[in-house]
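Lecture notes, unit on protein representations.

Consider one protein chain, 146 amino acids long.
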Amino acid sequence: MRPRSRRPPSALLRGRGIALAWRDARSRRPRGRAPLGQGVGHVTSFFVAGVESEGARAEEAYSELRARSLLAAGCPARARRIFKLNCRFDGQDREIEVGRPLSKGGEVVVAILDHGRFEDFCVHTDGDQDSPARVSHPVYSVTEFS
């Protein structure tokens, strides 16, 4: 009998281009992660809606929004860059996505900032200057930029 490694499976596979692939006990079908490069869905690279150029200009605009959000929320935003929220907003289940209107015929969402576990998400639109829309916890799901 071979001695078992004390390292977790993810540590054994790191650097080999393989993610863990679990199988259902009954059906023997793969469950969870697949080998890297297989089954990868659509990925969205980071952007700030309304800013035409990528790179330095987008980063500068995002920094300005983070500073404005700090003033509105009273605490700094986390580093995660959020593309989409599935949540309850204005009494309805909604999907709020960067680059799309916040509500029908409304202002376009420029950025979504997370201010921590106990703070609301700040949703900045192209029309707000000082007060972003606030989304309370819990949210159903958060999709980050890749």
